[in-house]
Amino acid sequence: MTTTLPRVRVDERAMGAGTTLRFVLLVALMLVSCGYVMGGVSRAVSHRSGFGYFGCLLASGGDPFQGSLLDNLITAVGQDKAYEGCTARYEPSLPWWVTLAWPVLLLAVAGALFWALPVWKARRGRVVPLAAVDNDGEILRVLKEFAAVAGLARVPRVVVDPAAASTGAVVFGSNRRPTVCLHGGLLARRHTDPDGFRAVLLHELAHIRNGDVTLTYVTVAAWRAFVAVALVPSVVFRIRGAVTLSPMYRPAEVPALTRFFALMLFMVVLVYLARSDVLRNREIYADRAAVRWGADPRGWVVPAGGPPRGVARRALAAFVELWRTHPRWDLRRDSLADPVALFGVRALPLFLTGSAATLIYYQLAGTTQQWDGRWADYVRASASAALITGVVGVAVWRGVVHAVLTSRRVPSGVRAGLWLGAGMAAGELVVNDVAVFRWLPARPEFLALAVLAGVVIVWWTAQCAHLWVRVWRGRTIHPAMLLGLVTMCLALSSWFVWWKGSGSSFAMGQPFNPATLYEASGLASVPAPYRSTPAGIMVNLQRLADRPLALPAVAALCVVPLLAWLVRPDTATPAWARDALRGSEDAGMAREALPPLRRVLLAAVLGGAAGWAAFAGAAAHLHTRQPAAGQLTRLYVVNYFGWVLAAFSVGAAVAALLASVRARRYRLLIALVAAESAAAVAFAGMFVLASFDGCVQPLNVLVRSCDWRPASSWEVLHYLLGPALLLAAATAVVAAAGVSAIRRVRRPAMTPGTAARPAGREGNRPAAQRLWASVWCAAAVVVTVTAVLPDTHGAPGQGVIARTRPTASAPDRPPMTAPTSARTRGVQVLAWHSYGGGELINRFLDSSKSFTELLVKGNGRIDESRVRPYCTAFGRIARDAEEFFRVPDPQAQSHWQKFVTRLESAGRTCEQATRQSNGDLLMVSVKDLVQATAAADSASARMDTVRREGDL
């Protein structure tokens, strides 16, 4: 059988394979998971109480059995000081060294296994030294020759497994001290099939040359250590806890326990599938290296049965293939002729990477919660984003490079993004992030945002890679690739930070408009203007814009593609492409011109003009509702802000649509640049119009007299610039996606042989193109810095609102929570008493008893120095009770509040009496004390009743 080589082949060594980072991803996942899982076990062991993890939550009035996660968060946040004090005392965080000790233990066990595995594999009785069977030294001479061909500094240690009848070999140990084990059947094959013998040895030496040995066995050792240190102990501990779980806690604990077991199973599947996929890739790399060194490709011609018949059998075969560490022989044979399998952007690695990164981010946040804070979260987000970028980003760039060099269809990145996003969403379902006490999140539809984020970011990455591959002239593609990957990492980091701060809360059930949340929870009364939809949109956009990574990420998504226009055009094949095509019959690459920037500029100008027109129309509409002079209301100003944002979005939409319709390639990149540029142009025009507010009577909005007011207009527009830029980016994505979908339906897909526009038409004035691109990049940086920097005149936008008349607020209302069962109420009251409430009552009773005894023994004569400590004690108890949790039962809380009020009055009056030596005031304090005692007794009696009603 002969193998036909394709006319164009890409050297798989031209770019990084990305498999090393996939090994790093797996090891990082195991380390972080070990700290998180065993940290949870350590906390459970150290916090043994009858209420498990729910003591402080129950004491605060939370309901882990029927209440939503959001309701419980609101309950805790509404009493944050008491909750923090409770957790610090009864549920303290573990010392940092305890959490760190588990990953360190994992590393120690993994290191021991890494050292022991080669010793065990090469133990006496299983293998023999090569010298024992190579009497004439012929095999050793061949090995020395092959090692020199492979570029190895020295011949690896060689042993023989005479009992192995297979005709293969295996290498183990490390890159520095590898051991090659030859099977007995291979030695017999040396005489009957010397070419096959040569191919097997060169293949194993290629593993050493490629550095596969250490990576493989580090992963194996780390996984076995994880099983021993974390997986088995934690599963046993959780099973024991599930068996002894009180029926009272089952509604809250069972979903979390189920997710834990699902997480462990998911980890097993993820690690095995990911490791097997990487090893299959490394086998193909070793095959190709062996052929380059002189191995006969016919050595890979192994008889195999045909493909299975039937859908079910094919599906089963594909499933079984996922778990194998060696690829099929037909795939290995085909890859010798065309390594397209090494450049494909496949679904499984993308899904597993998205899931692993999500698990790492969530578990890292839980493991390092003692270092919680904004910048700590950015570090965690950046670490997870970097892992995704190193795996997915590199795979996308490799796929694009291969497609361009071989004139194949360039991957769009949309399907890859779907798999990445699906993995991130799946990861959220197996951790206690968006659903803790329930089976599913309150609003699972928000998990679709994770899928959307994956699609958009990978779509952008693929188009950016395609753009830079077409223009890059350097010796290596790595600088351009690094630029695109850094931007991808920045966008992913921004996504992770937003998801933790806002997205996960929406999935928990938080309303889109925070005003609705405040009203429903009773945390605050909300003025009517802030309950509107425009206000909700502005608040969420402003929150996102306030995050330090969001606007720089949007700017980078626009600037990095624009930088491609700064590269001088050249029709010659670049050096990096010639190296990648080394050995092909046709070592050229078709050049393609970039889209003229004038089209994008025209779309941006027209979009900016549309934004001006929309702003003028909004001003005319608002003018009909303009209040009298000095009578501006907050509702009117908030609506004005909303109309300004709408005008920005109109301009961005027009620009994005115009640019997308005209674009043949790079549609998302061009739409982003056009939309953001249109927003900047619209900002300039709106600033001028708003500064002359009052001069054109039909367009008067905030004032009625004509004057040049740049400070006021700047205050408003600067406040809205960040949200406008984010809205423009979202609009560009929607426009590009819509146009792409319509084009895909109405016109057949471009075939691989479609001719590209020649590079000679890259614009008749390339110098002008580069000048425009430079100005554009500088303007993007200036606009972004302007939006990010705070207004020096104070809180942005608040000055205008401060000059308005207040609008009626919503009345205070109690939290809107679901009815609580009698048993849950009893458990809450019991927890309240056990986690500090009972201690407060006992402190009061002890002080009251001693104070009464002091008064009785005094016989009408009281030593003020002996009374004063009791006065202070009563005041302190009253303050502590005021800062403590509300009693979960409303009726008991009413008595408790009366107790706190009377006790505070007793302490204050008592201190006044001692300072003034006033016996009458002292008697008043005694009366307050009697009333406080009665209220405390009533509260205790009511709580006893609640416990009895709950069968406790």
Helix-strand blueprint:
Elements: H1 19-46, H2 55-59, H3 69-78, H4 80-90, H5 96-121, E1 128-129, H6 138-150, E2 157-161, E3 169-173, E4 178-183, H7 184-192, H8 194-209, H9 212-243, H10 250-292, H11 311-322, H12 329-337, H13 340-343, H14 347-367, H15 374-405, H16 414-429, H17 448-471, H18 478-508, H19 514-521, H20 533-546, H21 550-562, H22 575-580, H23 597-623, H24 634-662, H25 667-691, H26 710-746, H27 766-788, H28 798-802, H29 822-858, H30 864-883, H31 890-916, H32 919-949
Parallel strand pairs: 2-4
Antiparallel strand pairs: 1-2, 3-4
Short description:
The protein is mainly α and 952 residues long. The chain has 32 helices and four strands. Strands 1-2-4-3 form a four-stranded mixed sheet, sandwiched between helices.
Fraction of residues in helix? 55-70%
Instruction: For the largest sheet, list the strands in their spatial order.
Output: 1-2-4-3
Q: Using only CA atoms, what is the Rg?
A: 35 Å
Q: Count the helices. How many?
A: 32
Number of strands: 4
Question: For the residues shown, what is the average pLDDT?
Answer: 84
Going by helix content, strand content and strand pairing, the class is: mainly alpha
Shape: flat
Biggest beta-sheet profile: 4 strands, mixed
Distance between the termini: 81 Å
Which stretches of 5+ consecutive residues score pLDDT under 50? 1-6, 749-764, 799-816
- State which percent range the strand residues make up: under 5%
